[in-house]
Design goal:
Length: 117
C-alpha cells in the first residue's frame, strides 16, 4: 500500500466515473467537473459504479500517476452519492482502500492529564 505524504489533501469524487478514462481524461475531469487543479499535489480518488474499483490520480512533481485497485470480494465504503467532492484524511483513505467501513470509525477524544494539586 502506498501511503500519502503528511499534509496531502485527499479528495473523493462522489459520482462514479467512466473507468475507461486514463491520466489525461481524469485530469480533464478534475479541471472541468470538480473545478480543481489536478497538478496541485492533492490525491483525487474516483469510484466505479459497482463500488468494487477505485482509481487515484496524483501529481508527483514530474508527472501524473494513476493508481488502480479492485476488490476481489465486497465493495468500497463510499460517502452518499451526491454532486461534488468530499475531502477525507489520509487515514480515512487508507481504511477505504482496505475495504473497511471507515464511516463507522470515530476518533476517541483524549483527555488532558490532570495537574497535581
Amino acid at each position: 500500500m502506498i501511503a500519502p505524504p503528511t499534509g496531502v489533501k485527499v479528495v473523493l469524487c462522489t459520482q462514479p466515473v467512466d473507468f475507461r478514462k486514463g491520466h489525461d481524461g481524469l485530469a480533464a475531469f478534475v479541471q472541468e467537473a470538480l473545478r480543481r487543479d489536478p497538478f496541485c499535489g492533492d490525491l483525487f480518488v474516483f469510484r466505479s459504479k459497482r463500488l468494487d474499483r477505485v482509481k487515484i490520480l496524483a501529481w508527483d512533481g514530474s508527472g501524473l500517476c494513476l493508481f488502480y485497485k479492485r476488490l476481489e470480494t465486497g465493495r468500497f465504503t463510499w460517502p452518499p452519492v451526491r454532486d461534488g467532492v468530499v475531502t477525507v484524511s489520509p487515514a480515512q483513505m487508507a481504511m477505504l482502500l482496505e475495504g473497511l467501513d471507515w464511516s463507522r470509525v470515530w476518533r476517541r477524544s483524549v483527555e488532558a492529564p490532570k495537574a497535581a494539586c
